[in-house]
Design goal:
The complex is a heterotrimer of chains A (306), B (295) and C (273). Chain A is mostly helical and 306 residues long. Chain A contains 13 helices and two strands. A two-stranded antiparallel sheet of chain A has the order 1-2. Classes of the chains: A mainly alpha (306), B mainly alpha (295), C alpha/beta (273). The interface between A and B is large, with 85 and 89 residues.
């Protein structure tokens, strides 16, 4: 604008015109990014060191912790720290929930994209979004007041069981699976469908032989994400699973998971005690598992790109 | 004919699945609302809860839920939008950006109970604060941050490139372009995302059990001094939220009217989350209309 | 490859003309090469751009003309992996240098894009947005510049009663003139126009062309166009680009009546492109 000053003064970088908020802004947002990195790193480091204390400081055997089925930390004479029942419970309830939620979620996705693309999506999409919005304690509470008595009266056992946990969790992860599966199937190129129909295939043949194989890596990603959510869910499961320290022998037996034991005992044990420290070790397992789920998802998405 | 039969059968199965999903939702909602609405009254919303006797309300829990949400958002929104701006506008493809992206992914996939444990370690024990609203809000920030970062990044990226170029070509700095052109254009979708995230925060309980605690001190709603122990505004007091309340009355409560209180609380919780969702949609549409108004 | 013909009056070669540069030219391009990563998009071009004249850049899509145009105000900086070598001399400075403050540079070398891209703000704010950033706060002064630049862009009569309505309510042609107006408001010396009327209907197009010819009095204009008629109607000199090379750079009349290179003739007569 002021053309009277020489070009050098107008156009060359100088401290003045380079500091006019530009640098300040960049530093500000970089700081936000740095805070995120440090949060992640400090979570890993703090939970890592805290979780290892029971093995390093208290001398709990890692092998016993991972493989023994005897959990009896309050026994003064001979405390036992076998967390296998809870580890088993976590995995069992996760896989069982995925077993129900995966067909339902993927089936719902196929319904929305292939069977009734126009109105089916309009109805199911908001329903799935509403299911996501229900807080997990509400799922737990309804599980406790409706599902547990129902199972007790009509199926057997106490009601508090692996079965209840798996049903509650499967409903909770259904929206996750359905949403991602819908995106995956609807993003398949239309030429796939047309090619198959042109060869005289029925809709079901097209779905089974063409669409599902083509979308498989994404569908698996959907299931893994759902399982990751199920594995880490605490309160809803805790309210219906019964929380016993034994390995369940049937699906109607009460059980416990890593998250439910942490939820129940964290407040009741003295901070720094051996029992308390083993709870942190279980937290560390949860942390490691969520890293494992991320790696699995990365592996699946690298397969998707090929 | 066989393949035709299989096709019909499969179609039937898919329709059945759709019906199952719909009936799950309808069942859940009608259960919550039918059982809950009859317990919701002005009295229920405005009397304090009781530990032993029947007839307690949820006044403090309701206030705590909103207050923790507010504090969380005050911390998480600027941080999250800042992170989103960084990812959308400054991050260059490379190692550092990959690391930040991985961190966001890790934070997003952490179970909330693990975040609660981290909060217990950091904001309760190491800082020596004990159970506080601030500790709960910080834990929820960790839980919420990746969502806001992603929403902000996506929204800023989806602002047409033309607008950014127009601003830069006029001799406006990058930062000023972000502040005055990109953020205002991205605002509706960022806001929608934030409100949806708020709904999630509102119903979250596991991350709060060990950070904000399971109890609330006797509050004096006439006391607006945020440094006084009885003031509801004090951020260094323990606070049980509505979601935590549902959990605690069901698993450790002694009150005889557990079911009534939980039914009412669950309904209030679900209705609030629903309102958040509706609000997000409505505001998103409204602002979108205002910005692209063709009057 | 026919490299750029040097300015007709001096006849100097690119490298040695720096100090005795012709007063008639505003930009002097020397051996400019532009790369996108490994790929070279512009292959060492040299040309002088005349002051207060309209220079048209023509050529088939992907020939490097837009890339060249966007390097003049360093908009290519936005593209990851893009880099430029050689010189573009403006007021004795090489504007490709690291030393250049691109923000200040873009105030003097303004740009109008192919698609009208007004900000989603009012008409008034579209013009004052950059002025305010440049430090102009006085309402009366801002009002004055808004009126003046809208008048120059031949838009004032159409919008004077609705300055505070959204710019998006204007028609495509009006939006493009608004974009020109907001560039004028910055009082640049050079205006870069990247196919400014290709997205417009014929009537709007005619208005924009008229406006561009009118702007020549005050500005040096470089325009990229796909429209041969437009180039021949409005420009003083025309440069023909083909796959990153500057094939021919001559007075417009000569290019369109008697081009010296066969490829130019073939392109202009519609044989390819």
């Amino acid at each position: 604008m002021e053309k009277l000053t020489p070009a050098k003064d107008r156009l060359l970088k100088s401290k003045n015109n380079w500091m006019d908020g530009e640098l300040r802004g960049k530093v500000l947002v970089l700081l936000c990014a740095v805070i995120m990195i440090s949060a992640t790193i400090s979570i890993t480091i703090f939970l890592g060191t805290k979780g290892l204390q029971s093995f390093i400081k208290n001398g709990v055997s890692l092998l016993e912790f991972l493989t023994s089925t005897h959990w009896n930390p309050t026994n003064q004479a001979k405390p036992e720290y076998g967390a296998l029942p809870f580890i088993f419970g976590s995995f069992a309830v996760t896989f069982l929930a995925a077993l129900i939620a995966a067909p339902l979620g993927i089936g719902g996705a196929i319904f929305m994209t292939e069977i009734a693309p126009s109105w089916g999506r309009k109805i199911l999409q908001p329903i799935i979004e509403l299911l996501v919005g229900i807080p997990s304690v509400v799922y737990g509470f309804i599980g406790l007041t409706v599902l547990v008595p129902f199972i007790r009266e009509h199926v057997g056992g106490l009601g508090f069981s692996l079965l209840s946990g798996m049903i509650v969790l499967s409903i909770m992860i259904l929206p996750t699976i359905a949403t991602i599966a819908t995106d995956a199937i609807s993003s398949l190129p239309n030429s796939l469908r047309e090619g198959s129909y042109a060869l005289g295939a029925t809709r079901w043949q097209t779905i089974r032989k063409v669409l599902i194989p083509a979308a498989l890596p994404s569908l698996l990603t959907a299931i893994v994400l759902g399982m990751a959510r199920a594995f880490g869910e605490a309160l809803a499961v805790q309210m219906v699973i019964g929380n016993v320290r034994n390995l369940p022998s049937s699906i109607l037996d009460a059980s416990a998971t890593l998250t439910t034991i942490i939820t129940l005992n964290m407040g009741h044990t003295t901070y720094g005690s051996v029992e308390n420290n083993t709870l942190w070790s279980m937290g560390l397992i949860l942390l490691v598992m969520s890293f494992a789920f991320i790696l699995l998802i990365r592996y699946l998405s690298s397969r998707r790109k090929m | 004919m066989k393949s035709k039969t299989a096709d019909r059968l499969a179609t039937g199965v898919f329709i059945a699945i759709a019906i199952i999903i719909i009936s799950i939702l309808v069942g859940l909602f009608s259960y919550i609302l039918v059982n809950g609405l009859k317990h919701i009254s002005w009295e229920f919303l405005t009397t304090p809860s009781s530990n032993i006797r029947a007839g307690g309300g949820i006044r403090d829990q309701l206030f705590n839920s909103f207050y923790i949400l507010l504090i969380t958002m005050i911390i998480a929104v600027p941080l999250g939008i800042g992170g989103g701006i960084y990812m959308a506008e400054y991050a260059k493809p490379g190692k550092v950006t990959d690391i930040i992206r991985s961190c966001i992914e890790v934070l997003a996939s952490l179970p909330s109970i693990v975040i609660g444990m981290f909060g217990l370690l950091m904001f309760v024990n190491i800082t020596g604060w004990g159970y506080t609203i601030l500790g709960g809000a910080l834990a929820l920030t960790v839980f919420n941050l990746p969502v806001i970062v992603r929403v902000s990044e996506d929204s800023i990226r989806s602002v047409p490139r033309d607008l950014k170029e127009a601003s830069l070509a006029l001799g406006i700095t990058h930062w000023h372009t972000i502040k005055t052109v990109l953020l205002p254009s991205a605002f509706p979708s960022i806001l929608t995302g934030i409100i949806l995230a708020a709904g999630r925060v509102f119903g979250e309980a596991a991350a709060l059990l060990f950070t904000a605690g399971l109890s609330t001190p006797r509050l004096d709603y006439g006391n607006w001094n945020p440094f006084s122990a009885q003031s509801p505004l004090n951020i260094f007091r323990p606070a049980e939220t509505l979601a935590v309340h549902i959990w605690s009355v069901n698993t450790q409560g002694l009150i005889p009217d557990v079911e009534e209180v939980s039914n009412g609380s669950a309904a209030v919780l679900v209705i609030s989350v629903l309102l958040f969702n509706l609000l997000a949609r409505w505001i998103g549409r409204l602002i979108h209309k205002k910005i692209t108004a063709t009057k | 490859m026919v490299s750029a013909l040097m300015d007709k009056q001096t006849g100097k070669q690119a490298g040695e003309s720096e100090s005795k540069r012709n007063k008639e030219s505003i930009l002097e391009v020397n051996n400019l090469e532009i790369f996108y990563g490994e790929k070279r998009a512009v292959n060492g071009i040299s040309m002088d751009i005349g002051k207060n004249s309209i220079t048209a850049l023509i050529g088939p899509s992907g020939c490097g003309k837009s890339t060249f145009l966007r390097s003049i105000n360093r908009m290519n900086d936005l593209i990851p992996g893009a880099r430029a070598e050689g010189e573009i001399i403006y007021e004795d400075l090489n504007i490709l240098s690291e030393q250049i403050n691109v923000v200040a540079l873009r105030k003097e070398i303004g740009m109008v894009f192919q698609k009208p891209n007004p900000f989603p703000k009012s008409i008034y704010e579209n013009i004052t947005h950059a002025l305010k950033f440049a430090g102009m706060k006085k309402k009366s002064k801002l009002d004055e510049i808004v009126e003046e630049s809208l008048k120059k862009a031949a838009l004032w009569e159409e919008v004077k009663d609705r300055l505070h309505k959204s710019a998006l309510s204007l028609s495509g042609g009006q939006q493009q003139r608004l974009c020109i107006a907001r560039t004028i408001a910055m009082k640049p010396t050079v205006m870069l126009l990247d196919e400014p009327s290709s997205a417009l209907d014929p009537i709007s197009n005619a208005k924009v062309e008229e406006l561009i010819i009118d702007l020549k009095k005050d500005y040096s204009i470089i325009i990229v166009t796909h429209n041969m008629q437009q180039a021949s109607r409005i420009s003083d000199k025309t440069a023909f680009f083909l796959s990153g090379d500057l094939i021919e750079y001559e007075a417009t009349e000569k290019i369109f009546t008697n081009p010296s290179v066969k490829k130019t003739e073939e392109y202009i007569s519609g044989r390819f492109g």
